[in-house]
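Table S4 entry, Siderophore-interacting protein.
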Amino acid sequence: MATPPKKPLRPLDVIARRHVTPNMIRVTLAAEWVKELPAGIEGAHCKIFLPSIDQSKTDFLQQLSEGPRPTVRTYTIRYIRPAVGEMDVDFVDHGDAGPASAWARKCMPGDVCGFAGPGPIKLKTYFADFYVVAADMSALPVAAATLEAMPKDAKGIAFLEVTGAEDRQDVNNPDGVELHWLIHPDPHQPATQSIKLIEALPKFEGSVQTCIAGESGMIKALRTEILSRRGIPKENAYISGYWKIGLVEDEHQEVKRAEAATA
């Protein structure tokens, strides 16, 4: 007998899908239970559970409730509209190589996926004199959501790395936060632009908060820069590796757990 999931996994219906940019797919998902979620949780992470190829909706819903656990990937709530029971989740288009990208490229209104979460938003309060934001394509949703949630008088700088110039998005960042789009055409190669630019920033004055996420190599270097060299308190710095070159998510999560255990 299959072991059911530890926590109930809730279904979501696909109601729309479109390419926001050539390499980013936005899937709009809906359910009555979404109306019970609070507004303002853009940027919170969640788990998206994916049906297998050609799996029927009935079979997938049964699997959600009874197990075994379907393929799962971690994503970010980009927008949520509790009043109408909808949320948007953005997927980087990697072609059909990965299960989440393949599903997002092909899903249609009426299709279904599973959901667990949401987790906490990354910056619960905004109090800094200066903000530092950095992200690659995988973390663009959390970076954009954070920028849009900042006070309108916020000051800071943001470096967002995208595959091509056409992948730049409209982000409603505060006027006082300089937004720089960086082109990194080959995500299979380590990204270094954000690292060099943040290392070159002048000494921070006053309190600082960060929202930095992306490939683990970039994150390791920026964690050293922000926490060790700059001395920003750990509680003020969200810095997280979302993936690692050469590893699928399950392997990357194992690496992160091992590193946390020895930290």
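The first strand starts at residue 10 and ends at 21.
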